[in-house]
Amino acid sequence: MISFSTEKRKIFVLDTNIILHDSSCINQFDEHDVVVPIAVIEELDRFKKGKEILNCNAREFARALDRLTGDRIFNGGVPIGPGKGKITVYLDRDFHDTLKANFAPDKPDHHILNAAYHIACENSFERVILVTKDVNLRMKAKSIGLMAQDYNTDRVQAPADIYKGTRVVADIPSSVIDQLWAKPFEMDAAALALANPLLANEYLIMKNGSKSALGVYLPQTGSIRRIDTQVCYGIRPRNAEQCFAVDALTNHELPLVTITGKAGTGKTLLALAAALEKRRHYRQIFISRPSVPLSNKDIGFLPGDIQSKLDPYMQPLYDNLAVIESNQNGKSGNLNGNGRRVKDLLEEEKIIITPLSYIRGRSIVKVFFIVDEAQNLTPHEVKTIITRAGEGTKIVFTGDIYQIDHPYLDGQSNGLSYLIEKMKGQRLYTHINLEKGERSELSELAISLL
Fold first, then answer.
1. Domain 11-150 has CATH 3.30.930.10
2. 384 confidence band (pLDDT: 50, 70, 90)
3. CATH superfamily name and code, 166-293+301-325+340-449
4. For the segment 17-43, what is each residue's pLDDT rounded down to a tens digit?
5. pLDDT tens readout for residues 137-182
6. Which residues form the PIN domain (predicted)?
7. In this model, does residue 424 exceed pLDDT 90?
8. Distance between CA 88 and CA 13 in Å, rounded?
9. Bigger pLDDT: 52 vs 280
10. What is d(CA 225, CA 35) in angstroms, rounded to the nearest whole number?
C-alpha cells in the first residue's frame, strides 16, 4: 500500500490522453496528489517518436518526470513543486476481483482502471478521481464506484456563448451614421453611448431605419472606422460578416485572426483570397490543416507515397484554390490571368499546402499562415503554432466549433474556442463569426434541417 498525502488532498489518477493533450497537466492540480499508472508510461513510450504535437507532448512529459524523479517516484511520490502535491508512478497490480468478471486484462485502459480502483480501496473512494478524456472509460469507472471526470483546465464556456466578434447596434441617430459617410469616415465611439464597452477590433452593424453602416472599433484612437465592401483577389463579400472578415484578413496591423462558421460560409475561401491579394507583402503562404484520420489511424496507415497519403486531407484546400482560379479565369477570359498565377505560385512553392506536422522546423517569418479546421487542434497545439510566429507573419485560424472530428475534443475544450475566449479584446487580434451560408440554397437548407 502506498501512503499518500493528508486526507484533505484528493488523488487524481491520469489517463494517457490527458498527458498527450497537455504535457504540463501535472501542474494543474494545485495541492492535490497526482498518480500516473505504469500502464500510462508504457503507452507514452509508443508516442515518443514522430513529428506530431502528440509525440512532442509525450517526450516533454517524460523529460519533466525525469527532472522530478528519484527512487521515491515509485514509493510515496515526489513533490511537484511549491504549493503542489506529490506525483507517483503506480506499478501494476493483479486485477482486482471486482474488475475480473467485466474487464479484459488485455486493454491498457483496463490496467489504468485497475490501478485507480486499487488506490481507491487502499485510501478512500471519496478521495480518488480518474481523469480521462475518454467518455467510455469514465462510464466504466463510474460503473464500479469510482469518481471520474474530464480534464477541465482549458475548457471555455459553451459554444453558443463564445465571443462572436460582431455586434448589431440599432436605433442609432441619423447624424451619427452620417459621420461615418463623411471624411475621414471615422467617428468617436463614445457617440454610440453603448451600455457594454466595445472590445478591441470588434465589428459593428449600425442601423437606423433606412440608413446603415458597417464599422470596426479601433482601440488605439477610441474611434470607429467605416468598413466598405472590397473585392479580394476576385472574391466579393456577400454579407456584412464576410466584409468584416476581408477587412481583418487584409489588415497588416492584425497579425492574428480567427474566423468561425458552419460549412459553406466562406471561411477558407476568404482566407485564401486575402492571402493571394496580399502575397507581395509576405515571403510565402502556408496553408495547413490538422490531419484527423478516420478511426484515429495515422497517415502512415494509408497506401501510396507521401503525396498520396496527404491528398485526402489537403483536397478541400485545393478545391478552394480551384474556385479562386476559375473565378479569375472567368474574369480574364483566358489562362493568362491570376488563375494561371495560382498554379505558378504552387509550383514555385510560394504557396505551400501541407499538414501541420510538416510545418514543424520551418521558419515562420514574413508568412501568411492559414490553419484550416482549427477546431481539431488542442489548446496546446494552438499555442505552439502562434509562439512560432516571427516578424511580419500573419496567422489565420478558421474552423467550425460545432463540427469536431478529434476523439478527445469538444466545443468547449478545442483549441479554436480556447483561443477566441482567451484572446478577445487584445489589440493584435480580432475574430469574426460567419453566420450565413453562401455555398448554395440547397446547402443552406441541408445545414438548417438535417
1. no
2. confident
3. P-loop containing nucleotide triphosphate hydrolases (3.40.50.300)
4. 999 999 999 999 999 999 999 999 999
5. 999 999 999 999 999 888 888 888 899 999 999 988 888 899 999 8
6. 10-139
7. yes
8. 10
9. 280
10. 54
Burial (CB < 10 A; 0-12, 13-18, 19+), residue 379, is buried
Length of the chain: 450
**Nine-digit cell string for 209:** 431605419
Instruction: Specify the amino acid at residue 259.
Output: I
**Residue that the C-alpha cell 440608413 belongs to:** 211
11-150 and 166-293+301-325+340-449 in the same fold = yes
**Which three cell numbers mark 300?**
502512415
Determine the Cα–Cα distance for residues 330 and 234; give it in Å rounded to an integer: 10
Who's near 291: CB < 8 A, 6+ residues apart? 299, 310, 313, 355, 356, 357
Tell me which range, 238-247, 297-306, 333-342, is most confidently predicted by mean pLDDT. 238-247
Measured between alpha carbons, how far is 431 from 429 in angstroms, rounded to an integer?
A: 7
- According to the model, what pLDDT value does residue 8 have? 75
Nearest to 24 by CA among 156, 128, 111, 151: 151
Quote the cell numbers at residue 394: 500573419
